[in-house]
């Protein structure tokens, strides 16, 4: 597995991106950050070979995470996506899984759970390369 690959964090909450980025860095994982879907798509377009897993909120201004995931899967079907939802409803997660998400986490995030899912997604991404 290529540990030089980065995790793309797409979330409109700057504090979440910063805390999660630091959490990953302490575990020798680098991340890139995008504040919305369009910024995430721009990063992917320019640096897709550097990114193996995307962690994305479903509820963001502009294009929501589920629509964004559909756009990502059109151009980069091999990318593994973990969706985040702050909603108590599982419907967002179910819709995301049906549309190709690798997995989901509820907000507030349990970082141990998120780390486990990122590692599993990386293994899957490595097998798909």
Secondary-structure blueprint of this entry?
Elements: E1 6-10, H1 14-25, E2 30-34, H2 37-47, E3 51-57, H3 65-75, E4 80-85, H4 91-98, E5 103-106, H5 111-128
Parallel strand pairs: 1-2, 1-3, 3-4, 4-5
Helix pairs in contact: 2-3
Descriptors:
129 residues, alpha/beta, Rossmann fold, five-stranded parallel beta sheet, 5 helices, 5 strands, globular
The CATH superfamily is Response regulator
Rg: 13 Å
Q: Classify the secondary structure makeup into a structural class.
A: alpha/beta
Helix content: 40-55%
* Number of DSSP-assigned strands: 5
CATH topology: Rossmann fold
CATH architecture: 3-Layer(aba) Sandwich
CATH class: Alpha Beta
DSSP helical segment count: 5
Mean pLDDT: 90
How many independent structural domains? 1
Query: Looking across the biggest beta sheet, what order are the strands in?
Result: 2-1-3-4-5
Largest sheet at a glance? 5 strands, parallel
Write up this protein.
The chain starts with 5 loop residues before the first strand and ends with a helix. Strands 2-1-3-4-5 form a five-stranded parallel sheet, sandwiched between helices. It is an alpha/beta fold and 129 residues long. The protein has helices at residues 14-25, 37-47, 65-75, 91-98, 111-128; strands spanning 6-10, 30-34, 51-57, 80-85, 103-106. The radius of gyration is 13 Å and the shape is globular. The chain has one domain (6-128): Rossmann fold. The model has no long low-confidence stretch (mean pLDDT 90).
